[in-house]
Amino acid sequence: MAQQDTGRATPGVQGERWFPDETPFAAELADLWGDWYCDSECGTLRSVLLHRPGHEVEGIGPENFAEYRFRAPFDAEAARAEQDALADLYRANGVEVHYVQGQRCDRPNAMYLRDLVLMTPEGAIVCRPAIPARRGEERAVAATLAQLGVPILKTVNADGYFEGACAMWLDRDTVVLGHGSRSNDAGCAQVERELRGIGVSTIIHTQIPYGSIHLDGFLNVVDRDTVIAFPWHLAYDCAKAMTDRGFRILEATDIDEVKGGMALNGVALAPGKVVMPAGNPNTRELLESAGVEVRELPMDHVMAGWGSIHCQTAFLRRDPITR
């Protein structure tokens, strides 16, 4: 019986005998690139990317904070301490913490990494921010991902713009994409093509309403079958699509906590275990009454830039989950 030619040179045999290896990319990813993976917002968290606030956030005071789209003057040292506490909590929970290298010194919003990276089961989508004050941050992020060995599947380009917090994984087959001021139709279409190319079968398109810029301002996943949402910003079609898939929706109705305290802007450390911004007792009670374990961290100074725990965290690896 003739042996199949593997493409390796055989002494004394002439001619073209090269055949492709048709092993899927995902099957080789861990060996060739590293153990990078994300198909949910709540699978056990293993690796994250952060940007520790640097020189770029110094000097944002009463006279110029609005120019940088901050909501208050920024205390750089206090914000660094808050993020350091978050990084320590991640490490204490077995999470590997990586940091962006070589970020520009004129981009004070660069600490909000979720906007710049959307992680998938096969690598990262590098996003393109919507506002000029943030464009260029993604270059340092892409370089850091490459240095770590994270595959880059796509860089949003052409006339598209899209920020990673405008996407939310529900499970391996299902992603919510939000269209709004930070993600136009062209950007969403580019992201959808990549997701479908790696096997995502269901894309739930929804509008991000005026008054929110990202999904994580009014929606988050806290367990395998549980989301928490600000009901007055959650579109009915999106809510129904989630409940049709077996999700229960916890309705966070304390407007001061959701909008002022960024109560929904937390991160699941594992299914049913979250870290959230401190100072939101009603939202914490809602989560705990649903069986979710809650950790709190103060984020008042980080939130001066209109972001909190989820905004700062780009997931690089989560364990796969089953529902």
UniProtKB/TrEMBL annotation:
<dbReference type="GO" id="GO:0016990">
    <property type="term" value="F:arginine deiminase activity"/>
</dbReference>
<protein>
    <recommendedName>
        <fullName>N-Dimethylarginine dimethylaminohydrolase</fullName>
    </recommendedName>
</protein>
<dbReference type="Pfam" id="PF19420">
    <property type="entry name" value="DDAH_eukar"/>
</dbReference>
<dbReference type="GO" id="GO:0019546">
    <property type="term" value="P:L-arginine deiminase pathway"/>
</dbReference>
